[in-house]
Amino acid sequence: MLYCTAMYLKKRSFSQLSSILWLIVLAIVVVGCPSKTIRYPAEHERLLRIDQALESLRSAYQRKDRSGFHAMLLPLDELDELKRQAELDFEAFSAISIEFKTERVVIEKDDIDVLIHWQGTWKRDADDIPIRQRGYARLQWVGTHSILLRSAQGDLPFGMKTKQLLSEPPLPPTQPR
Prior knowledge:
Elements: H1 2-11, H2 14-32, H3 41-62, H4 66-71, H5 80-92, E1 95-108, E2 111-123, E3 131-142, E4 148-154, H6 160-167
Antiparallel strand pairs: 1-2, 2-3, 3-4
């Protein structure tokens, strides 16, 4: 078949050949680039709100915005420890830089599980060597229009002050002379 096509094209002039090639390229482009329509607009909007909630939590923590951070959390007793750990970080570090990479989002009715990889740096002073850490966490959110954090599990980025204290070796006891 290729041989027959080549013989046919050989008989045609160069301008006809180039016209045929342009038509083939145009056909491929038209078929290969369908318009992008959103199939499920309500679910798409909800995913955008979830992404915005995650970004608001990250940004508030990084900016050390206490009220913004607390506004992203449901008023539950089980989140009090998370709030306390974030407060310790806000007081201990002069600069916090953190990135979230979403691995997976699982939505079941009003319950939302967001699995993230995070990495960040925490500095006590401007000229201090930063503490670099990374981890994997599960953030459980709730809501459809207003997305709020209900629970957090795993290796969380909040509470770096406590993690640092736990990882430092204890000072040897001083003995009297």
